[in-house]
Records
---
Amino acid sequence: MALPPRLTDEQRLKALEKAAASRKRRAYIKSELKSGSLVIDNILELSKTDEAVANMRVRELLESLSGVGKVRALTLMERLEISPTRRVKGLGRHQITQIRNEFMKSSHAISPGKLLVLSGPGGVGKSTVAKKLREVGDFWVSVSYTTRQPRSNEVNGRDYHFVSHEVFQTMINNGEFLEWAEFAGNRYGTTQDKVEQALLLGKNVLLEIEIAGAKQVKAHLPQSILVFLEPPSWEELVSRLEGRGTDDEVRRAQRLELAQAELDAASSFDVVLVNDEVEGVVQKLIELAS
Ligand code: ADP
Ligand code: 5GP
C-alpha cells in the first residue's frame, strides 16, 4: 500500500484549517435543513459548486431533513440502492431524480433569485445606487468585509464589516469568501454563506464590488449578471470624487489613477450603464433582475 504523503508543518496546518472550515459549513447546512430554510433541492444544486456540500454523506444529509430520522433515511437509501457511505457527489443522476421526487412533492420548490454584481470606477456612484436600490427594490444587498478604516459617516455592519488584517486573513484561510480583492492598499471581500442562502431563498442579490472581485464571482457563479457603471464623462468622475470629500489629495490621486485602469474593464462586463441619473440606473437594475 502506498504510504500517505509526508506533509510539512505548514501543509498540515492548512489541511486542518480546511477540514475545520468544511465541518463548520456542513454543520451550517444541516441546521438550515432542520429549520426548513433550505430544502433538499437547494442542497443538490449547491453541491455542484460547493466542495464541502459535495463531500457530505448522503445519510448525513437525509437525516438532517426535518421529519426524517435515522430509520427513514436508512430505509430510503436501501430502497434507492444508495450505499450507506455514499457522498452527495457520488450520487447518480437517477438517484438524484428519485431523491428529488421523494422530498419535493411536499416541500415548496423556490426558484433561485438573480445575482447582480455592480462594479465601476471609484466615485462613479456605486454605493449611492446600491443604497437607493435597497430602499426601493426588492433586493438583498450584501455587506462586505474590509480592512479599510471606517469613514466618519459609515456604520459597522451597515456599510461594511470593518475587520483587522488578521481576521480577514483567517477568513481567507477558512474559505469563507465567495470573492475577495485588494484595492488601494486594503482588502475587501464578500462572504459566501449569506449570498448563497439569499439566492436559494429566491431573493435577488446585489454585490457592489470592484472589478477583480466581479470576475471571480462570474467564474464561480456563471449565472451572475455583471453590470459596469460608467460616469457620463471623466470630468464628472473627478468632480464626484472631489465632491464626496472622503479622501485626502493623495488618496484621491491614487483612486483616480486606479479609475483610469478600471474604465478599461467595461468591455468584459455583461451590461454597461451610464450613471447620469441615479433613479434611471436603479430602474434598469430592477428590470435586469425581473
Ligand atoms: P462609489 O461608491 O462608486 O465610489 P459614491 O456612491 O460614493 O461612489 O458616489 C460618489 C459621489 O458622487 C457622491 O458624492 C455621490 O453623491 C455622487 N453621485 C453618485 N451618483 C450621482 C449622480 N448620478 N449624479 C450626481 N452625483 C452622483
Ligand atoms: P471604498 O473604499 O470606496 O468603500 O471601496 C473601494 C472599492 O472596493 C470599491 O470599488 C468597492 O466597490 C469595492 N468593494 C467593496 N466591497 C467589496 C468586496 O466585498 N469585494 C470586492 N472585490 N470589492 C469590494
Note: The chain has two domains: 9-108, 115-289.
---
Amino acid sequence: MVFTMPQLPRVANLIAGEWVDGSGADTLDVLNPATGEVLTSFRGSTADDVDAAVAAARAAQPAWGALSARQRSEALHAISAEFSDRLDEFVALEVLDAGKPLSAARDAELPDIADSVRHFAGAARTLSGQASGEYVPGTSTFIRREPVGVVAGITPWNYPLWQAVWKIMPALAAGNAVVIKPAELTPLSTAAFADLAQKHLPPGVLNIVNGYGSVVGTALASHADVNLVSFTGSTATGRNIAQAAAASPIRTVLELGGNAPVIVFEDVDVDASASLIVEAALYNAGQECMAATRLIVAEPIAERFFDAVVKNLEQVRLGETTDEATTLGPLISAAQLARVEKLIAGRPSSASLRFGGTRPDRAGFYLEPTLITGLSQDDDLVQHEIFGPVLTGQTFADESEAISLANGVGFGLAGSVWTRDVARGLRVVNALNFGNVWINTHLVVAPDLPIGGLNQSGYGKEGGQLGIEEFTRVKQVGISLT
Ligand code: ADP
C-alpha cells in the first residue's frame, strides 16, 4: 500500500447510535503534525453532552450485559472482520492525524491493532476464578464476575486507535457500555472506528464525546453514573482524574507516564544491542511511555556503546510521514516539540550532546534523533518523561549501582536489562521497580499480556486476563444448604 488520501470521518459525538455535534461554543482544529496544516475541525462538548452519553450507555448496558459471552463475542468478531478488511483506511488516518510514518503504521501498528480487536472479541469467554464450595459450614458459595456497568475511557494522542481499542473492546467483551473521550489532538481514527463498530452493536453500547480534557474528561471522571474510568495519559492528568473520581468514588485504572531504564552490561554484543535499543527508543518518535530512553551502561564499554548508538541515529530517515522510506516522523504538536526542546536546552553544562538536539529545517513538528550523555541522576532529562526521540546516557561501575540508577526515579512503568549472563539478568529484573521488564529485548507488547505501571506510572492492568478482569466486578453469592 502506498499512501492514498482517506475520506476523513465526521468528528462529532456518538450518543445512542446518532452522530451529533458537541454543544460547546469552541471549535477545535485537528492538525497534520507533519505539515502543521489543519485537516478538519470539530465542535467541543460540554458536561451536558457527557450527561447524554452516560445516560445512553446506562440505558443500553443491562441488555448488552445480559447477552451470553458468545453473543457479545459474535458482535465483536463482526467488528473485527470489517475492521481487518478496511485496515488501509485506518493506516492513512493514523499517518495523517498522529504523524506516524507510513511503513510503521502499515507494517506494525495497524496489524497489531487488528490482532488486538480480534483477541479482545473472544477475551471474555474464558474468565476464571475461585472454585465454588463450602467455605463456611452449611453454606455453598460461588463467585460471579459481572460487568462493572458504564466504563469511561479517556485516551491519549500517542496511539489514538490502539488505546481506544484496548479500552473499548475488552470493556464491551465483559458486558459493559462505554463512553470514549479521545485526545483532542487525534480524534479521527477513533471516530472512524466507532462508526464502523456501532453498525454491529445495539445503540448506546458505544458512545463518544469529543472535546477538551478539562471539560469532557473531568465531567466523565466525576460523573456519578460512571462505574469505572480507564485512563491513559500523563501522570499530572492521572492525578486530576483520580481526584475527580474520588468524590463518588469511581474505580480508576491509570496508565501513566514512564522513563524506562535500559541497563547494558559489558558482556553484550554492542552493535546488535545498540541497534535494537535505538529502535525501541525511537518508535513513534519516542512518544511511547515505555520507550527505551535511559541508557545505563557499564563503564568499560560505555564509550563504545554510545558510539554505536550514534551510528544507528545517523541511519534514521526523518521525513514525510507519507513516504514509506521514513523511519522517524514528527512530534504530535508544536507544544510537545517545545517541551522536549526545553528539556534538551536545560541539560547541565557537564552533559554532552552526542547527536541531534535541533529541529530540522522543514515544516511540521520534527526533532532530530538525539543522544545526550554524561547526565546525573537528578537531572530533569533523567527524572522527567521526555516523550520525544531522545536517549540519555549514564554509566555504572557495578550491578548494585546499575539497579539503583534504574530505580532512582518516580516512574515505574518499564525497563530492560541487557546481558548474556542469565542469572544476572534475572537478578536485575527481580530488583527493578517497574511493571514491565525485559531481558535482551524491550517493548514486548501483545493483547494477551498485561501492561501496567507502578508508583507514578499508575495502577491497574490493560491486556491479558488481568486486563479483562479490570472491567468486571466480583460478587460473592452464598446459599444456605439448610
Ligand atoms: P498531554 O498532556 O500529553 O496532552 P494528557 O494526559 O493531558 O496528555 O491527555 C490524555 C487525555 O486526557 C486526553 O484525552 C485529554 O483530553 C485528557 N485530559 C486532559 N486533562 C484532563 C482532565 N483534567 N480530566 C480528564 N481528562 C483530561
Note: Residues 47-66 form the longest helix (20 residues).
